[in-house]
Amino acid sequence: MDINRAFFLRVEDRAPRWHVLSAKGMVLGRLATQVADLLRGKGKATFTSHTDSGDYVVVTDCAGIELTGDKWDGKTYVRYSGYKSGLKTQTARQLFDKDPSELVYRAVKGMLPKNKLSDQVLSKLRVYAEAAHPHFAQINTQEKAAK
């Protein structure tokens, strides 16, 4: 590679991989940081901020996630319906009881940059509350190709 030329990753040169992470016993923010970096491809030598150079990520065991301090009851998630008195708030515990995978999804979404590429990057994230996931074919194919 010539150092006097700028590098731009072409779509046909992308080689995304599949990563499986278990959230059991992990702190939510630290897990979300790792996942966001994998989704964007920040650990690759071919990283360019304006293209999608990241990998696919499968997060399992979200029911075993941990939050530090008083975040279970102190952290609130807010949404607004658009109507008068339509402001709805939930604590992290209420959201976790309803759907543990939503807690991880929202944390990762918050770690990604707010630009046109974020929806495309976020579509490569798969989050499951239990250890089972349906993506064995992609992961096994990838391991066979590496051998």
Could you explain the architecture of this structure?
This protein is an alpha/beta fold and 147 residues long. It has a domain at 16-67 and 99-132: Ribosomal protein L13 (Ribosomal Protein L13p, Chain: A, Alpha-Beta Complex). It is 35% helix and 16% strand. It contains six helices and five strands; from the N terminus they run E-H-E-H-E-E-H-H-H-E-H. It has helices at 28-40, 71-74, 92-98, 100-111, 118-122, 136-146, and strands spanning 18-22, 56-60, 76-80, 87-91, 125-127. Strands 1-2-5 form a three-stranded parallel β-sheet, with helices on both faces. Strands 3-4 form a two-stranded antiparallel sheet. Helix 1 crosses helix 4 and helix 3 crosses helix 4 (100-111).
Distance between the termini: 27 Å
* Poorly predicted tracts of residues: none
> What's the CATH class label of the domain at 16-67 and 99-132?
Alpha Beta
Supply the helix-strand structural class.
alpha/beta
Query: What's the CATH topology name of the domain at 16-67 and 99-132?
Result: Ribosomal Protein L13p, Chain: A
Order of helices and strands: EHEHEEHHHEH
